């Protein structure tokens, strides 16, 4: 599986439910990580930096609502969409009232098709490049479905790694990515790649972006990493 596929964290204490969710999310092409309670969920968030969290309300120990509240108050995690699963009628009103900060909610028993549609909907917002949409930054256009990249009227030739790098940058223009974050996102955390490899591919990406002229849109941030614009 390509490493730039979105990561979804499933927080659910019931093994059967966890399995159904994981199975269906993987079938959609997502990378799935799981946690069985709130404390493990918080650890997994810091460890895997998920793109979206499916969070069950009823969990042993720290409840889903408390986890949601904590994640939504932390700068590093508040932009991760949270899709809350709720079984209880009276909870729905509270979730709906956005008291929890949850981005969306689904009531149990849910339809898997509906849940997947809501997951995709949230991911389109935060990971447009991973959900088949086209991204634009100034005169650069990247079509994540056809893998075509153009600058102005010129088609650009990018290798697969440079394409994933550019997708990452174009999803969040202005954000500074450290080499380590780029390694996680583009190469995956399971394989060992020297951080200098990132510099090599950034160099290739810059060359490709400027092959037909134009300013270098990538910025080197000393001691921090790279950013687009
Ligand atoms: Ca539960």
How is this fold's topology laid out?
Blueprint: E1 7-11, H1 15-27, E2 31-35, H2 38-48, E3 52-56, H3 64-73, E4 82-86, H4 89-96, E5 104-107, H5 112-126, E6 134-137, E7 140-143, E8 148-151, E9 154-156, H6 160-171, H7 179-187, H8 195-209, E10 218-221, E11 225-228
Parallel strand pairs: 1-2, 1-3, 3-4, 4-5
Antiparallel strand pairs: 6-7, 7-8, 8-9, 10-11
Helix pairs in contact: 2-3, 6-7, 6-8, 7-8
The protein binds calcium ion.
Residues 12-14, 56, 58-59 line the site of calcium ion (CA).
What does this structure look like?
With 229 residues, the chain is an alpha/beta fold. The protein folds into two domains: 7-126, 3-Layer(aba) Sandwich (Rossmann fold); 130-228, Winged helix-like DNA-binding domain superfamily/Winged helix DNA-binding domain (Arc Repressor Mutant, subunit A, Orthogonal Bundle). Helices cover 41% and strands 21% of the residues. The chain contains eight helices and eleven strands. The strands form three sheets. The protein has a five-stranded parallel β-sheet, sandwiched between helices. Strands 6-7-8-9 form a four-stranded antiparallel β-sheet, covered by helices on one side. α2 runs parallel beside α3 (64-73), α6 (160-171) packs across α7 and α6 (160-171) packs across α8. It binds calcium ion. Calcium ion binds at residues 12-14, 56, 58-59.
């Amino acid at each position: 599986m390509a490493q730039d596929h979105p990561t979804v964290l499933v927080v659910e204490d019931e093994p059967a439910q966890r399995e159904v969710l994981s199975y269906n999310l993987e079938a959609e092409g997502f990378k799935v990580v799981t946690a069985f309670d709130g404390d493990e969920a918080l650890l997994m968030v810091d460890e895997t930096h998920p793109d979206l969290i499916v969070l069950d309300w009823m969990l042993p120990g720290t409840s889903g609502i408390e986890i949601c509240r904590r994640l939504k108050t932390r700068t590093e995690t508040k932009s991760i969409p949270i899709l809350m699963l709720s079984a209880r009628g009276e909870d729905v009103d509270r979730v709906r009232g956005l008291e929890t900060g949850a981005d969306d909610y689904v009531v149990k028993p849910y339809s898997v098709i509906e849940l997947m549609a809501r997951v995709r909907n949230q991911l389109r917002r935060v990971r447009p490049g991973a959900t088949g949409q086209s991204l634009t930054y100034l005169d650069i256009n990247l079509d994540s479905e056809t893998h075509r990249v153009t600058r102005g009227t010129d088609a650009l030739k990018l290798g697969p790694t440079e394409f994933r790098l550019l997708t990452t940058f174009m999803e969040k223009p202005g954000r500074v990515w450290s080499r380590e974050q780029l390694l996680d996102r583009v190469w995956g955390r399971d394989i060992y790649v020297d951080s200098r490899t990132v510099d090599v591919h950034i160099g290739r990406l810059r060359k490709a972006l400027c092959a037909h002229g134009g300013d270098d849109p990538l910025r080197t941030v000393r001691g921090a990493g790279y950013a687009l614009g």
